[in-house]
Design brief:
Aldehyde Dehydrogenase, Chain A, domain 2; alpha/beta; seven-stranded mixed beta sheet; about 40% helix; Aldehyde Dehydrogenase, Chain A, domain 1; about 500 residues; five-stranded parallel beta sheet; 15 helices
Length: about 500
Amino acid sequence: MSEQVKNLINGKWQAPADKKARKYVRNDPGNGEEVSWYLMSGVEDVNAAVAAAKAAFPAWRDTPQPKRGEIIYACAEIAKKRKEDIAQLMTREMGKPIAEARGDVQEAIDMGYYIAAEGRRAWGHQIPSELPNKRMYTMRQPLGVCGLITPWNFPVAIPTWKTYPALLMGNTVVFKPAGETSLLGQKFAEILIEAGVPAGVFNMVVGSGSVIGDALVNHPDIRMISFTGSTETGLGIAAKCAPQNKRVSLEMGGKNPVVIMDDADLELALHAVLWCAYGTTGQRCTACSRVIVHEKVHDKFLKMLVEGAKKLKVGHGSKPDSFLGAVVNEKQLKSIHGYVEIGIKEGAKLECGGAPLTKGEHAKGHFYPPTVFSGVTSKMRIFKEEIFGPVLAVIKAKSYEDAIALANDTEYGLSTSFFSRDVNLCHRASLELESGLCYINAGTTGAEVSTPFGGWKNTGNGHREGGPTVIEAFSDIKTVICDYSGKVQRAQIDNN
């Protein structure tokens, strides 16, 4: 049964102000069945949501931080009870295999517990003064209204990465979920309401990114934009925010390499690569899309990889044996296949996969098989550009130095992986690989909520999601200086 998604503004579910708003229908990418629909909102709806968030800000800011944390803890408890229902919906709305969908929800639960604890732990610092009878300390204070823009590939986890720390630090929120997963956005909003988030503190507006996203970015009362999505869109947001001196947190693209040295455990590396390349059908910002293999083990590993990729089951996400689910939509399916055609044209060798699956159980959905290219060089587009699908490029390296240079030869810097039994080389690689995340003898995916998540170069702009650093993006530091000497004391002046 298809369900309508509405805007949440000041605690009330409502349709867009425009009575002639265009209808958007979301179908299951695995079988074409209708899952949800909504009417496209506009600038007027964003303005109403921002006004509600602005009005709710003073009271929420003044709510004790531990109390805000308790509400977030309640969110995690509610999500835990609804985990299976949300996971099943996720499989239908965006195509993710059910095991991964459960993991997505579990990550949201874990993030709730983690951030809730920050309600009693997000402390400042006491700083010794060079002068007598003077006390100095720092505190964190909220920014105001935050605009949160999230993608479809982690439709429950990523909204919690942003919403929970924003709310914990006393900000209010206007949330724009991805159009493909708007119903999951609504289920998340329902959890927040049930947990006790006051009206106006969290608002949600559904519609196109070009309309809703731009309205949030350009609104003078939005003090911070947190965005996860493509590099092109993220850099455009940053450019628009700069003249307004608006804080921006960007989590963007990746072209993540796995480096496999000649002494590596090849079986371990194989299973890691299969998971991090083809999990979520390659639709992760941290997905491995390049495997850089030492020439001494290149041919052996390539054979293992191709054999392993061919055995992976592609099917509807609801089926327990589906390793790869459906690609999120037809546009993305065409984009993936377009890159495969580019790779063939550029001279790379197609080892397996390479064409959409269109027969039998795949006939009504958007399915692409695990695809492997060999003979890839650093000049090729499939080496350089993010594909966001189950397409893997294998590159031969002559040495450790060559492998590291190839790994770093990218505009992105999100996640890297290095396989070797040489502990000294592993430590060296952890320093020399240019990325925000570096895995040793593990794949490029699998970040935990307690660790900072984010990238270098054109992957991010310095902020981190997850871990203790996440609260930094959603708060301002105030330094308080209290002089109780009863006289004017001059710091940095020679008082001897």
